[in-house]
């Protein structure tokens, strides 16, 4: 009898936990739940890695630009995962006017590993989610086929939270501190850069992956076709890290070229005024809250300037066929 | 390899398949058990096999010599030789640095510098267990309570039998060796019981013990000062952690044995339902307590030579029992503490008979016993403080905090720790309540089919959803 009931009970528990977690406001699930519920509802969407998530405040953007912004930055995930999240976002939400895409040394690299795999649990039925999550090896075939298998050893509090939420009990559901995906970091400078500098005394080179580059270009082309304006922004970095990235110039030129090809803009803040003051950073790559909000203001003002200009035509486009477009440059 | 790992699962399935194929051929089965036990043990470190082989070879040889001589002087020499060999190996690997450091510290307080090397000695897993098991065999042969094993293979299989090798139970030659020497039948009901014991053991380990460790470990890792309320919550957590960790291992060992047709002894019999120290030591780590009783306490005179010598024997036995657990003064103090409890209990029992209140009805009797169980549980928890603490100083500080600095301060996580403690221990207490009420460790197997299925499903999914990751080592491996 036990064996006969094992699978149905497993399926029922899976459904219960999954449906509960889809209502969670916990930091792992809140943004995904907003995406699937169509609640992002943004005029401007910020994308990128942790350097988007901790750097760009939607509230500051809105104070300058009006409307509504949302930060979809994915901590610990590379561009392919960000692209997957974008596709899911587009499936359930209205088209934004602007996409502010964070770029940097790692953007065009292939990133291995699945950071915080628990965030993917409630939407595992979505093939796009499986594609994002499966890259790093945190999940396997049994997660696809066996009910409840993906919930094993992901943390008892997540499973219990899901079950409680299924019955409307929010005892364990600590609301996220993020504001529409952004979370300013109240941290002081740590020693991670010193360790990094010791380990990479001769510097390091970013190696773009051809598949990632192609996907990035296709993403820009798609946005262009859909009339979504894209701004690629390289956030401030603490100045002492600049010399360590051996192919920095090649990367910035590559992003600038991609932007030109696809009528996007490229904004390089990596060596701006903020980068000279360590008190705005908690490590060489990440601004603290004060630095992030100053940067958000600067970014918003620059975006406002571009918003007041019409979008550029594609270089090969005959301007006569598109009399409403001014050709820039 | 640990029981709660996928490597062991694969290992056991392969061994069990071969074991099944060799049924009816005892010699081959025993060879298989020997080889698989050596693979199991060597998985930790192949060098450990040399040490265990030395113990096996020397005790097998000594037992054979014992059986060939009637001269009492010679027989005594052989058994003393066995004890010397075994205790020397155990003493060196487990206690060399402890005694060397203690000696150095003691002389240092007198202003005398004592030199001598501090050796980096790896403590072989399970050495305390198989050493005692092998020693008991030789002593039983010496006492003519047991015939020596006919072959080295059979004896080696007995000592190294992998289900109980690294963390007990410490089997006796009179129990396990005959089972090694006769054909074993594998019945379906045995496999069913064995499967239940394995599952229950894994539940105790992975759901209760490993999760409660996340409450207890931070408490003892904290240098202090401690909050008394936190000390009690952490102590309760550790009490259940160590019980479930250790008894879980024993249950798995028994279950594996049952699946192979062996009857391994019960090592834990609901010890936290004890109302006094004497009862506790008849229920806790039974294989060790009976070993100490039969090979230490009784030979010293036991309780047969007057009150003073009885108390002395109790204290010495428990002190050495504490030292058996590890080369730290905290274990010695823990052993002495339990020795003192036993002495006080004996004194108290001698002063007045332990009677229930006069003309007490069943409810009053039960209530009185329940109160004594709760009180004694707290006395056991005080002992666990010394067992688990990093030092005697830390234990004393925490003990003081437990009685003088109990503050329920919001915001430091006491509520969630208490809730977690209750949540993880409730299923254990529910099942053990049934076992206590029915006086049967397999009580769950005997309830009607529908509620039984409900219990299995509940335990299975609790383990699946809330069990700690596999592969965490058992506490008693370090002993």
Description:
The complex is a heterodimer of chains A (329) and B (479). Helix content of chain A is 41%, strand content 8%. Chain A has helices at residues 2-21, 30-36, 50-53, 58-65, 79-92, 127-134, 141-145, 156-166, 192-199, 210-225, 248-261, 289-307; strands at 44-47, 69-71, 98-102, 229-234, 265-268, 281-283, 286-287. By secondary structure, chain A is α/β, with parallel strands linked by helices. The model of chain A is unreliable at 312-329 (pLDDT under 50). Chain A is globular. Chain B has 479 residues and is mainly alpha-helical. In chain B, 71% of the residues lie in helices and 0% in strands. In chain B, α1 packs antiparallel against α2, α4 (72-109) runs antiparallel to α5 (127-142) and α8 packs parallel to α17 (449-466). The two termini of chain B are 16 Å apart. In chain B, 39% of the residues are buried. At the A-B interface, α1 and α8 of A face α17 of B.
């Amino acid at each position: 009898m036990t064996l006969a009931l094992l699978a149905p009970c497993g399926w029922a528990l899976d459904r219960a936990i999954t449906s509960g977690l889809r209502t969670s406001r916990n930091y792992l699930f809140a943004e995904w739940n907003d995406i699937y519920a169509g609640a992002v509802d943004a005029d401007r969407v910020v994308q990128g890695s942790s350097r988007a998530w901790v750097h760009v405040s939607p509230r500051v953007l809105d104070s300058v630009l009006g409307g509504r912004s949302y930060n979809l930055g994915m901590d610990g995930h590379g561009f392919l995962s960000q692209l997957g999240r974008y596709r899911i976002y587009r499936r359930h939400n209205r088209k934004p006017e602007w996409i502010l895409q964070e770029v940097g040394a790692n953007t065009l690299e292939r990133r291995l590993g699945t950071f915080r795999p628990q965030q993917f649990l409630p939407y595992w039925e979505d093939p796009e989610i499986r594609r994002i999550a499966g890259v790093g090896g945190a999940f396997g075939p049994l997660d696809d086929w066996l009910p409840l298998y993906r919930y094993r050893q992901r943390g008892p509090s997540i499973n219990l939270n899901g079950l409680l939420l299924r019955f409307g009990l929010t005892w364990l559901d600590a609301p996220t501190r993020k504001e529409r995906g952004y979370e300013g970091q109240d941290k002081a400078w740590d020693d991670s850069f010193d360790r990094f500098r010791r380990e990479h005394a001769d510097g390091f080179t970013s190696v773009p992956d051809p598949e990632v580059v192609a996907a990035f270009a296709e993403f820009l082309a798609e946005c262009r076709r859909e009339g979504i304006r894209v701004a690629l922004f390289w956030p401030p970095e603490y100045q002492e890290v600049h010399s360590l990235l051996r192919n920095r110039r090649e990367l910035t030129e590559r992003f600038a070229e991609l932007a030109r090809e696809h009528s996007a803009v490229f904004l390089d803040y990596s060596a701006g005024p903020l980068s000279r003051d360590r008190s705005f950073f908690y490590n060489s790559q990440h601004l603290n809250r004060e630095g992030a909000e100053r940067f958000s203001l600067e970014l918003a003002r620059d975006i406002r300037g571009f918003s007041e200009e019409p979008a550029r035509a594609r270089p090969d486009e005959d301007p006569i066929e598109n009399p409403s477009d001014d050709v820039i440059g | 390899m640990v029981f709660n790992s996928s490597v062991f699962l694969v290992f056991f399935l392969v061994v069990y398949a071969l074991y099944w194929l060799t049924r009816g051929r005892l010699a081959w089965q025993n060879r298989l058990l020997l080889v698989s036990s050596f693979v199991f043990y060597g998985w930790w470190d192949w060098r450990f096999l040399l040490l265990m082989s030395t113990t096996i070879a020397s005790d097998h040889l000594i037992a054979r010599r014992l059986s060939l001589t009637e001269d009492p002087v010679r027989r005594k020499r052989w058994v003393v030789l066995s004890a010397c060999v075994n205790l020397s190996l155990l003493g060196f690997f487990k206690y060399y640095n402890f005694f060397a450091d203690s000696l150095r510290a003691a002389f240092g307080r007198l202003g005398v510098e004592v030199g001598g090397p501090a050796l980096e000695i790896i403590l072989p897993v399970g050495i305390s267990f198989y050493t005692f098991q092998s020693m008991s065999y030789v002593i039983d042969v010496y006492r003519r309570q047991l015939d020596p094993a006919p072959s080295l293979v059979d004896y080696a299989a007995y000592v190294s039998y992998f289900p109980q090798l690294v963390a007990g139970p410490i089997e006796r030659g009179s129990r396990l060796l005959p089972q090694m020497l006769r054909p074993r039948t594998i019945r379906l009901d045995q496999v069913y019981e064995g499967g239940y014991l394995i599952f229950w053991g894994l539940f105790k380990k992975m759901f209760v013990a490993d999760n409660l460790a996340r409450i207890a470990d931070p408490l003892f890792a904290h240098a202090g000062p401690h909050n008394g309320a936190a000390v009690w919550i952490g102590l309760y957590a550790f009490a259940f952690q160590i019980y479930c960790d250790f008894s879980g291992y024993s249950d798995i060992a028994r279950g594996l044995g049952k699946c192979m047709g062996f009857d391994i002894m019960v090592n834990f019999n609901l010890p936290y339902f004890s109302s006094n120290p004497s009862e506790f030591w008849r229920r806790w780590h039974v294989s060790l307590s009976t070993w100490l009783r039969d090979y230490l306490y009784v030979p010293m005179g036991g309780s047969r030579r007057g009150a003073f010598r009885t108390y002395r024997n109790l204290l010495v036995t428990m002190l050495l029992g504490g030292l058996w657990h590890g080369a730290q003064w905290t274990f010695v103090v823990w052993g002495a503490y339990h020795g003192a409890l036993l002495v006080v209990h004996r004194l108290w029992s001698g002063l007045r008979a332990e009677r229930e209140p006069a003309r007490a009805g069943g409810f009053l009797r039960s209530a009185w016993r329940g109160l004594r169980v709760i009180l004694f549980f707290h006395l056991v928890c005080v002992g666990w403080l010394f067992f688990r603490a990093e030092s005697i100083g830390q234990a004393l500080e925490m003990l003081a905090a437990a009685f003088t600095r109990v503050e329920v301060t919001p915001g430091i996580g006491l509520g969630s720790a208490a809730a977690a403690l209750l949540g993880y221990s409730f299923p254990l207490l529910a099942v053990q309540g049934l076992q206590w009420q029915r006086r049967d460790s397999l009580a769950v197997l005997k309830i009607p089919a529908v509620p039984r299925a409900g219990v299995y499903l509940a335990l299975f999914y609790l383990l699946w959803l809330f069990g700690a990751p596999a592969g965490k080592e058992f506490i008693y491996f370090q002993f």
